[in-house]
Amino acid sequence: MPPALPKTPSHAAVFIEPENPTRSQCSITSMFYDLNVPYTTDHVSLQNTLSFLHTLGYRTVALSQTLLSPDNTPSSISIPLPFSVPSTLTVITRLTIPLPSPSSLPPRLLQAHQNTHSVLAVRPFPDEKSLSHACLTLDTDLISLDLSIRYPFYFRHSTLLAAVTRGVRFEICYAQAIEGGAEQRRTVLSNIVQLVRATRGGKGLVVSSGASSALACRAPVDVMNLGVMWGMGRERGAEGVGRECTAVLKGAGEKRGGWRGVLRIVQGGNGDGDGEKGKVGGRLEGKENAKAKRKVDEAMNEKEAEEEKPISKREMKRRAKKARMERIEKLGENADVLPREQKKE
Question: Helices (H) and strands (E) in the chain — how many of each?
Fold first, then answer.
């Protein structure tokens, strides 16, 4: 009689890794992320949720807060947390900013919160202008749509793919379908299918839980199965809790440590690292060296060009005439005693 299998929760899927995994199966066993776990002051419930997510296989979790108004900033989350979490679980912070209209978001608001939170997300209201503004203009990490309400317009391919091209990802929270009723579940499913269609099969989609309790959390393999039901496919579902989340965190880190994602702020090249004076001196010294190097390179290039270029007969005559004139100026009054051959020339 075969031995009995250990009991597991009914909502948690069991994945057995084969001895020789294929390429598609290797992607399933990679690191998983959940970038939307609402923060609550009930530390017991939050601790249970984080522990359960770690048991399901997640290794990075983002605790999210919502900015109710530009003047009402929520108190920052203290990291490390006041309660114990698994040692292999990384906890980061996230801020979600509502976007009622394109003009309602101050220009400097996103930049003001970049250094205080690991991930920034905006949630446009069900208005096509707000969604277009978030996709084409805002410098954010995530666009988190409220999928529990009906949108009075269709998602356009060009608008959503323009955001994906800029490095902005869209977020799907599956807890909205689990914690709601039958009508809300149908609305969420309809919006997700439309979102997958507009992103050409789920490009740039991040799948998060958005769960307020441990009962609404699902394992990564269950999320992949949901991706098949949504039309994303199993591979896209794996990327939604893996590679796409990695790209979000990497892009957010580059924004915090650089300028517009192009220039990276580093220490000056003087090697001592003693304050701003050394940094400025290192930068000036580097500029002077660069200028000198450019001048040497230009002179060498001009010299090489002159050496490689063949001299024409006209140029040879011009140079000979110039040499004669220089000799005449140098001799001055003694020009009459020049040899006969030179006078003939």
Answer: 13, 9
